[in-house]
Amino acid sequence: MFKASDKTANSYFSATIFPKILDIFPFSLVPIRGASRRCSLRPLIIFILGAPGVGKGTLSGFLKASFPGLTHLSYGDLVRYHDQIPGSWVSSLPRRQGTSSPLLPVHGAVRLLRETIETGAVQHGQMTWLVDGFPRREDHVAEWLKQMPQADRALYLFCPPEVSSNRIIRRARTSGRPDDVDPEKVWERVQRFHIECEPMLNALKNSGIEVVKIDAHRDLDAVKKEIFGCVQASLGCGMNREGDE
C-alpha cells in the first residue's frame, strides 16, 4: 500500500519524528480484509481536531507519553518545517491573507501528510499515528480519502471560541508564532475554524469515520482521562481486527 517517499519527507521524519519513537505497538499493524498479508498492512490513524488554542498540542504530548508507539504528527508543524526550506514548493506558495502562513492547495496538504506517513511506515516501520490539526475543511476529507486509507477515529476537542482565543494570546509569549500575537488575527483564525468545522465533521461521519466529541473546557485531568480511554480503545480495535484475519 505504501512506497518510499521523497528525500524531503524523509528528512522531516528523520529530523523531527523518528528520534522520538520509543517502541512499536505489536497490534499497530492493521491489515485490510481480503488482501494478502504482504501488501495489506495499513497504518492505524487517529485524527485529533479542534480550534486553535483548544489544547491539541498539550493533549497530543500527553498521549504520546502515554502510548510510546504512537507517533504524533502535527500538520501545522509539518507545514512550517517545509515552509522554512529555501526553494521548497511550500515556501513558494502565496500567503494566507493577513498571516505569514502558506496557502496550501488541498491536494498538496494531503500530499505532505501522506509522504511523511509513507516514509515512517516503509522506512521505519511506524504504523500508529496521531494526526494533529488535520483535516480542517470538508474538501480535506474528500482528498484524504483519495490519497490515504480511512482514518480509524477522529477526536474532536471543543470549547467556547472566547476560551480558545484567550489561550492563544496567553501562549504568544512562548510560542514564537507571529500569528499568535495579534488578538484580531487570533479571533479571525478561531472564527474561521468554527465556520469550516461542522461541514468537515459531517464529511468525516459520512465517510464512516467515528467522531468522538470531547469537552476541553474543564479540568485537564478529566480531559486526559477521557481522551486516554478513546485512544486506548482505538488501539485495542486495531489489535482485534488483526486477530480476526
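^ that was protein a. below is b, sequence first then the C-alpha cells
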Amino acid sequence: MESQTITILLVGDERCGKSTFLSRISRGRHNLKGRASVILLRDLDQPFIFDIRTRRGEYRFEFYDTSSPESWRLLRPDLVILCYDISLRLSLINLQRVWNKEARTAGVTGDTTPVLMLGLKRDLRSEDDPNGIIYPQEAYRIAQEMRSDKYMECSAVTGELLEEVFDDICTTALRTITSEGGQSEAGCVIL
C-alpha cells in the first residue's frame, strides 16, 4: 500500500526556532521527551520527510519552512503552522503583521486549509523581558484574532510539550485528508 502525502508548511521569522523544532522531531518519537542534543537539519534538504504509520494507514508528512530553497509561496500545503519565538515580542508582532497575511494572501492557504499557531523556545520565556513577557493567554488571544484553528507552544531544546505538539500536528494533518477537513469547528483551541 502506497503512503498518502500531506504537505505541512512552517512560516515565521528567521531564527524563531523552526529548524530546531524540525530537527528535534526528525529524531523520532522516542526522542521527544526531555533534553536531547539537536543536530540541525540543512535547509537544502527540504522537504523534511516523516513517515507516519497509524491504524488507518501509512502517511508521508513533508515539512517545509520559509527557508526552503523552493519558493514557499508556490506550495499548496495541506496544513500551515505560523511560528514565533516566545522569548521575543517582535517575533509575535511579525507573526501578526507579516506572516499571517503572507500565508493567507499569497494563496498558500485555501478556505479549508487549517492554520495552527506555534510558540517556540518556551524554555526561554522570561519574567525579566524589558518588552514584557508573552504569556500563553496573550498568545492564545492573538491566535483567535488571527483566526488560527489552534494555539500550541513547546521547547525543542528541553522537550517541554514537544510530544503533545507533535501529536496535535499529526492529528490535524491527518484530518486534512478526511471529508471533515482539519479546521476546528468553533475557532481557536488551546493545547
